[in-house]
Amino acid sequence: MVRKAIIPAAGYGTRTLPITKVLPKEMLPICGRPAIDYLVEEAIKSGIEQILIVVSRSKNMILDYYDRSVELETYLDEKGKNHLLKEISLPNVHFQYVRQSYARGLGEAILLGKHFVGDEPFAVLLPDEIILSDKQPPLSQLIEMFKEFKGNVIGVKKTDPSLLKNYGVIQPQALREKEYTIKDIVEKPQQSPPSDLAVIGRYIFNPAIFHYLETISPGVGGEIQLTDAIKAMAQDYTSYALEIQGQSYDIAKSTEYVKLINYLCGPKED
Ligand code: UTP
Fold it and tell me: What is the pLDDT of residues 70-105, one digit of tens each?
C-alpha cells in the first residue's frame, strides 16, 4: 500500500564540515557501508519498492554507489575473488534521482518528488537519523498506523527539553499508547515547546501534502519547511504521530555517530 519513498539528500551538511565539503553526509561510513544504505535497507524491509533520492550536484557518489561497477566485477572474477561479488550486489529496489539545484529547504526537496509520487501515499526517510529496532523496522511501524487511520503519520521520540529547539516538535492529543493526533507542530521552538515529542525523520504522507508544500511561504531560516506544510495540512485533515520504538542516532552529532559505530561493529562484550 505504501510502495514509494523519498530520501532527501541535497543538504549542505554544515554541521558535519569539513568532511562534508567532499564527502556527502549520507555517505559517512558505518561499519563499511554508507549511512544511506541503512535507510535503503529499512525501506525495503518495510515493503518499499521505489525510492527517489533527492541529490545535488556534489552528491554523484550516491548514484555511483547504487550502480553496477562492471570493471570491478570483472576484476574480482579474473582474480578468483567471486566470493566478494555479494559485497557489491545492488539492493532489490528501483531507484530514481532528482537534483535540487539549491538547498532551499527540506520542504522544497520533498516537493521535487511530486511527479514520482503521483497519487499514492508515500514515505520520507531522513538520512541523518539511523534508527535501530530489534522489533519492526521503524518505517513499517508508521505504515501499520497509516493503514489503520489513513492520515499522515509522523515518527516522533521523547526528547530532552534542552534539545527540543533543534527539532520540529508536535502538540499532541493522546490517542492510544504511544499514538497521538497532531494538534499543532512547531519548527525549532526557541521557547515553550508544545511537548517533548520531537520529529525524528520518518514520515508517511498522503499526496495532498504537495498542495500544502506549494502554497506555504518560506519559514525558519528562509527555507521551505516541511514542518509548515504538515502544520497547515493538520488543520484540514487529521494527522497522526507515533513514538517509534527503537534507538535513534543522529549521525551529524559525532558522539552519536561514534556510539552507533561502537554498537554495530565495536568490540563485543562476552
Ligand atoms: P538537515 O538540515 O538535517 O541537513 O536536513 P543538512 O542541511 O544537510 O545539514 P546541516 O543542518 O546543514 O548540517 C535534513 C535532510 O534534508 C535534506 C538533507 O540532505 C538532510 O538529509 N535536505 C535539506 C535537502 O535535501 N534539501 C534541502 O534544501 C535541505
Answer: 999 999 999 999 999 999 999 999 999 999 999 999
Q: Which domains does the chain have, with CATH numbers?
A: 4-265 (3.90.550.10)
Query: What is residue 135's predicted lDDT score, i.e. its pLDDT?
Result: 85
Can you tell me the distance from the alpha carbon of 123 to that of 107, in angstroms, rounded to the nearest whole number? Answer: 14
**Helix runs in the chain, H state only:** 35-45, 60-65, 70-78, 106-111, 114-117, 138-149, 209-215, 226-236, 254-265
Q: Whose CA is nearest to atom 3 of ligand 1?
A: 128
Mutate which of 15, 100, 128 to test ligand 1's pocket (most atoms within 8 Å of Cβ)? 128
**Angstrom distance (rounded) from CA 50 to CA 2:** 10
| pTM of the complete model beyond 0.85 | yes
Q: Which of 12, 100, 106, 199 gets mutated to test ligand 1 (max ligand atoms within 8 A of its CB)?
A: 106
Q: How far is CA 178 from CA 103, 165, 213, 243, 259, in A?
A: 34, 22, 28, 5, 26
35-65 pLDDT, tens digit per residue, is 999 999 999 999 999 999 999 999 999 999 9
